[in-house]
C2 domain-containing protein
Amino acid sequence: TKQQTRVIKRNAFSPRWNETFTFIIQVPELALMRFVVESQGLITGNEFLGQYTLPVLSMNKGYRRVPLFSKMGESLEPASLFIYVWYVR
């Protein structure tokens, strides 16, 4: 399943989405969660900025910092996402 936040304009350094997504996962042992950050350009379209993928079962509840990596797997430190994780098994 794919879900996308709304576009945040004029706040590239510290955007806040304050959105909630709900997923129903049938086989959590095989499920991955992928975070992708893109910049929306009027002429060039969406430009990839960073990503992170992890197994759903490795996500702990609570507030978490998600580091971002390039397409080649290089760390983009200090770029990261601050998320809140909650789930029911």
In short: The beta strands are 32-41, 45-55, 62-69, 75-85. The chain has a mean pLDDT of 90. The first strand starts at residue 32 and ends at 41. Residues 33-85 form a domain with the Immunoglobulin-like fold (CATH 2.60.40.150).
